[in-house]
Specification:
It is a single chain. Helices cover 38% and strands 17% of the residues. With 229 residues, the protein is an alpha+beta fold. The N and C termini lie far apart (44 Å). It has one domain: 3-Layer(aba) Sandwich (NADH Oxidase).
Length: 229
């Protein structure tokens, strides 16, 4: 039955959506302050081992899960790794892949492009950071009867969720690193994930170390990244 707050459309329930709007100048101010705040977010490789309350991690994941997804399938799983032994296994496997990448897989151009970051195959942050969030994408769903359910725009959906997650981490006063050792199949094995899941992103999360330095980099200008028609 329809009510002022609900409506049935072609047999499906809809609820009233109310968004708070603001005067023009306040919209400008809000958009600018959010940009300036987000512009302070940086990729960090120097972590404190200070633990993060579980409630914080739960809230970060819940925020990520508010991202839009194809047909609202929500094709993601967020695996939280805090166990030191598992983190050690992940580091060892990641460093093995990274060693191969740095010594034989990466092109000279690639290696030149990342010189300013001063990274190498050693990844101690995978053990130092108190929490690793390993994001898996669901290539398809597994139904209770054992059949496969189709998911849509999986990469786009999970990518959006990861963006929301990074913003939530920054908002909580924490730092993170988007780590993509390639290939990442070892994560499926170590974490014993089901056949329909594929590793998408490995994100160490934590407080910054007492002394933390990041590369001095410049983001592209608005003129470089936007076109108005």
């Amino acid at each position: 039955m329809n009510s002022p707050e609900t409506k049935i459309i072609n047999g499906f329930p809809f609820i009233r959506h109310v968004t708070e709007t603001y005067p023009k100048q306040e919209v400008i101010n809000l958009s600018k302050s959010f940009y300036e705040w987000m512009n302070q977010r940086r990729t960090v490789r120097d972590f404190s081992d200070k633990p993060i309350p579980k409630e914080v991690i739960d809230n970060l994941i819940l925020t990520a899960s508010t991202a839009p997804s194809g047909a609202h399938k929500q094709p993601w799983t967020f695996c939280v790794v805090e166990n030191p032994e598992i983190k050690k296994k992940i580091r060892e496997a990641a460093e093995q892949e990274e060693y191969e990448s740095y010594t034989s897989r990466m092109s000279e151009e690639w290696l030149e492009d990342i010189k300013a970051l001063q990274t190498d195959w050693h990844k101690p942050f995978l053990e130092v950071a108190p929490c690793l969030i390993v994001v898996f994408k669901k290539a398809y769903d597994l139904k209770e009867d054992g059949t496969k359910g189709t998911n849509y725009y999986v990469n786009e959906s999970v990518g959006l969720a990861c963006g929301f997650l990074l913003a939530a981490i920054h908002h909580a006063g924490l730092v993170a690193l988007t780590h993509t050792p390639s290939p990442m199949n070892f994560l499926t094995k170590i974490l014993n994930r089901p056949e329909n899941e594929r590793p998408f992103l490995l994100i160490p999360v934590g407080y910054p170390a007492e002394e933390t330095f990041v590369p001095k980099l410049e983001r592209k200008s608005l003129q470089d990244i936007s076109v108005y028609y």
